């Protein structure tokens, strides 16, 4: 999966001191106004960020234990479906590189060079949870979207094996280069397995219907399924990229331009207190 280029803007700072989108980018050689700083600093340092991962995997474990307890004789075997990047694998040192080099938008060229370095780390609680599932006889299926050319599958395999995740083989690891639609792969798994939970940092990791180009429509579609969140679907936090970007711009990878920075500010001020 090629990660998405446009990331979280410091909208509150811009509003508070009255800086225009054009002024934010002008003559910025220090990187102290980098649009990624707030989001990446939170991912790098916040105990709350890590706590949300522990919370998510604790919830997943509760559902897993219940499913094991209630499993009917001769029923389908149990399984878990998970996304990979920003769900179980952390790329925080990649984001740190962008900040250090004053880059305020995701860069595919840098990402494609970084992935083979195997510098991913496991998200808090992920490895422990998956090993626990394996011990209980529950299979893990990894469904991810990546594209680093002909070596894409080999690289994804190496990234996961390097950390020690279980079930990294052709049956359980599905890497999609040409589409971000995961439903077909997920439905094939569900034919043979009772899927306990699905894990992802992006609503599109759960259902394709959320892949729309309108903010309010995407929220409305999510709210139609609100009973599923924390039960069947478990969402992990990701403030730096995702299909929420597409809902703002109509494009998952919009160009780094002052016009798009202005659109980000507009999105950040949809609801604003006025004196």
Number of domains: 1
* Rg over alpha carbons: 19 Å
Question: Kindly, what is the distance between the CA atoms of the first and last residues, rounded to a whole number of angstroms?
Answer: 45 Å
Number of strands: 7
Q: Overall pLDDT, averaged?
A: 87
Shape: globular
Q: What structural class is derived from the secondary structure elements?
A: alpha/beta
Helix percent reads: 40-55%
Helix-strand string: HHHHEEHHEHEHEHEHEHH
**CATH arch. level architecture:** 3-Layer(aba) Sandwich
CATH topology title? Rossmann fold
* Biggest sheet features: 5 strands, parallel
List unreliable stretches of 5+ residues. Answer: 1-31
Strand order of the largest sheet: 5-4-1-6-7
Please work out how many helical segments DSSP would assign.
12
CATH superfamily: HAD superfamily/HAD-like
Give the SSE layout.
Elements: H1 11-17, H2 21-25, H3 37-45, H4 47-70, E1 78-82, E2 89-90, H5 92-100, H6 108-114, E3 121-122, H7 126-135, E4 139-145, H8 152-163, E5 173-176, H9 183-192, E6 194-200, H10 215-224, E7 233-235, H11 244-249, H12 258-268
Parallel strand pairs: 1-4, 1-6, 4-5, 6-7
Antiparallel strand pairs: 2-3
Could you explain how this protein is built, in words?
With 275 residues, the protein is of the alpha/beta class. The protein has one domain (11-268): Rossmann fold, CATH 3.40.50.1000. It is built from 12 helices and 7 strands. The strands form 2 sheets. It has a 5-stranded parallel β-sheet with strand order 5-4-1-6-7, with helices on both faces. Strands 2-3 form a two-stranded antiparallel ribbon. Helix 3 crosses helix 5 (92-100) and helix 4 (47-70) runs parallel beside helix 7.
């Amino acid at each position: 999966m090629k990660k998405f280029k446009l990331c979280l803007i410091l909208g509150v700072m811009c509003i508070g001191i009255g800086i225009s989108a054009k002024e934010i980018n002008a003559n910025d050689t220090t990187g102290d106004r980098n649009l990624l700083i707030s989001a990446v600093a939170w991912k790098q340092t916040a105990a709350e960020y890590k706590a949300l991962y522990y919370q998510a995997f604790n919830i997943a474990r509760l559902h897993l234990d219940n499913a094991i307890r209630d499993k009917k004789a001769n029923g389908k075997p149990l399984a878990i479906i998970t996304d990979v990047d920003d769900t179980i694998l952390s790329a925080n040192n990649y984001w740190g590189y962008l900040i250090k080099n004053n880059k305020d938008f995701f860069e595919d060229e840098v990402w494609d060079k970084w992935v083979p370095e195997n510098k991913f780390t496991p998200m808090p609680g992920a490895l422990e949870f998956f090993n626990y599932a394996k011990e209980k006889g529950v299979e893990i299926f990894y469904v991810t979207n990546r594209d680093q050319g002909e070596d894409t599958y080999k690289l994804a395999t190496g990234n996961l094996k390097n950390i020690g995740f279980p079930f990294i083989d052709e049956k359980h690891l599905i890497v999609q280069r040409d589409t971000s639609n995961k439903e077909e792969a997920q439905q094939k798994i569900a034919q043979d397995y009772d899927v306990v939970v699905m894990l992802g940092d992006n609503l599109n990791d759960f259902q394709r219907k959320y892949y729309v180009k309108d903010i309010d429509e995407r929220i409305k579609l999510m709210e139609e399924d609100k009973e599923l969140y924390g039960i069947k679907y478990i969402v992990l936090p990701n403030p730096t990229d995702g299909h929420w970007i597409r809902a703002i711009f109509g494009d998952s990878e919009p160009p780094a331009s002052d016009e798009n920075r202005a659109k980000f500010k507009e999105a950040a001020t949809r609801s604003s207190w006025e004196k």
